[in-house]
Amino acid sequence: MKVAVIGCGTMGSGIAQVAATAGCNVKIYDTNLATLEKSGKNLEITLSKLVEKAKIDETEKDRIINHISYATSFAELSHSDLVIEAIVENLDIKRKLFSELENYVSPGTILASNTSSLSIASIAASCQKPERVIGIHFFNPAPLMQLVEVIPAIQTSDEVLEKTVQTITEWKKIVAIAKDTPGFIVNRVARPFYSEALRIYEEGKADFATIDWAMKTIGGFRMGPFELMDFIGNDVNYTVTETVFTAFYFDPRYKPSFTQKRLSEAGFLGRKSGRGYYNYSEDLPKAVE
Ligand code: NAI
């Protein structure tokens, strides 16, 4: 199977690894050449760590690397059976990308979005063949997280849904079919996990580290809300909350936080930028507050 992944940031790189591991020929496309290069280097590092831990051998590492190539034009993606978009979480930009992409792929190509929260129906409506569009929502980190939400839009054909579920299952993931509603299942349920933690902090009741500690030690979560937001990326996480808030007609339950907005605006995106709620650079003190 020929797969194209558009956007090779946190999610696109992981999705490409999953597809290549499953034996697909994968092409990764990104508008940012430096990011494309970084993605290739990171894949090499990730796979080398798996070899060190004896999870895979050198032959398997080379096999996965050889299944991935890098593209700088849509024309190079024309033979894809499935395209998975993982670019910035912005509806207008995604719609533009889908409508342009359709001119380059064959009529049978499935076009999927990895959006966390946006309307699949709206993305599909930007295409001439909306029945081929579907949501495939991986979780971070894609190679490790078992669950994948598959989201058919109102326009998606049964055949496309069936093929998608079959493919993702063959990639050894567990599929949950979700309705096309803001945040789908997991991201909607997760909103209060982040928002209430931010409110507790903003009310001066506890600092980031204490809230994270409490949720892990007492709540049994693997990561606290602030660690998790730094892991996801504050830009991505803030945008998802804002989308869900707006899409639910400004229901105050989903109200975003200024604390997170300012961090995102300042470029303190979390692990990927070296600073978020916590510092990740060696030369900075760990606590940001
Ligand atoms: P990211 O910021 O790490 O990567 C986005 C990539 O897209 C960048 O490499 C950027 O250069 C590229 N890009 C931006 N506009 C583009 C365009 N027009 N054409 C081609 N490439 C373009 O973002 P991340 O975190 O990988 O998120 C991507 C998508 O996946 C978003 O829709 C997000 O909501 C979703 N998602 C994110 C998760 C997370 O934990 N970060 C989890 C699940 C879904």
Write up what this structure looks like.
The protein has 289 residues and is of the alpha/beta class. The chain folds into two domains: 176 residues, Rossmann fold, CATH 3.40.50; 86 residues, N-(1-d-carboxylethyl)-l-norvaline Dehydrogenase, domain 2, CATH 1.10.1040. It is 45% helix and 13% strand. The chain has an eight-stranded mixed sheet with strand order 3-2-1-4-5-6-7-8. 43% of the residues are buried. The mean pLDDT is 95.
Enumerate the distinct ligands. 1,4-dihydronicotinamide adenine dinucleotide
Which ranges are low-confidence, i.e. pLDDT below 50, for 5 or more consecutive residues? none
Q: Number of helical runs?
A: 11
- Please summarize the sheet with the most strands: 8 strands, mixed
Helix- and strand-based class? alpha/beta
Shape assignment: globular
Q: Remind me, CATH topology of the largest domain?
A: Rossmann fold
Helix coverage percent of residues? Answer: 40-55%
Q: Structurally, how many domains make up the residues?
A: 2
What is the CATH C-level name of the largest domain? Alpha Beta
Strand content: 5-15%
Number of strands: 8
Mean pLDDT: 95
Q: Say which CATH homologous superfamily of the largest domain is assigned.
A: NAD(P)-binding Rossmann-like Domain
Distance between the termini: 49 Å
Q: Taking Cα atoms only, what radius of gyration do you get, to the nearest Å?
A: 19 Å
- Helix and strand sequence: EHEHHEEHEHEEHEHHHHH
Q: Largest beta sheet: what is the strand line-up?
A: 3-2-1-4-5-6-7-8
**Which CATH architecture of the largest domain would you pick?**
3-Layer(aba) Sandwich
Keywords: Oxidoreductase
Protein name: 3-hydroxybutyryl-CoA dehydrogenase
Organism: Flavobacterium piscinae
GO molecular function: 3-hydroxybutyryl-CoA dehydrogenase activity; NAD+ binding
